[in-house]
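Reply to dn_fold:

You asked what the input looked like. This is it:
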Amino acid sequence: MMFSAWKRIRKRAKRGFRGYPVATVGFYGPDNKTATKAAVGLIPAEGVETSKMERWFSDGEIRKDEKIGCEIMETINGWSPKTVAFADAVIGCPHEETKDYPEGETCPECLYWTDRDRWAELEKNLNSS
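and this is what came back:
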């Protein structure tokens, strides 16, 4: 029986906090329903900035792309974190401030996120699941 990489990542995240380093998995998209970008970071210790970051992009729903799920799982395994933090919810626009649009401005392509508190959106989505 073959298990989905996404299912394995979720299962690992359900173990809860087990110490540092922590691998984080975040999803981004043009709205709160469609994820077109996944970002995986590694936080080596409490109070320390992310030391590693990898990104994946998709034209469709990235959370259904098993190949990308496998690549993310391989990346996480390669970093050997003690904890995996993961939420299925989309937490913001896939474009990056300063890289894709000027700092302090809103993304001109993702109007859904204009004037929205993405962390409140995440909390709402987590509480409804």
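DSSP finds three helices and four strands in the chain.
Hope that clears it up.
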